[in-house]
Design goal:
rod-shaped, transmembrane, mainly alpha
Length: 49
């Protein structure tokens, strides 16, 4: 099959995009968690297990 070889510049750009996307996803996950805790209230931690 045809294999495309990326230049170092393209590899670095791809890695930078992947890192940026990972950071954005992590921030969104934390943001959803914080918003959920705020909406439910801090009393969620006081319930019996």
């Amino acid at each position: 099959m045809n294999q495309i070889d990326l230049t170092e510049k393209q590899k670095k750009a791809r890695r930078s995009r992947n890192v940026a996307l990972g950071i954005v996803l992590a921030v969104l996950a934390v943001m959803f968690y914080v918003v959920t805790i705020i909406k439910i209230g801090p009393g969620i931690f006081d319930r019996a297990m």
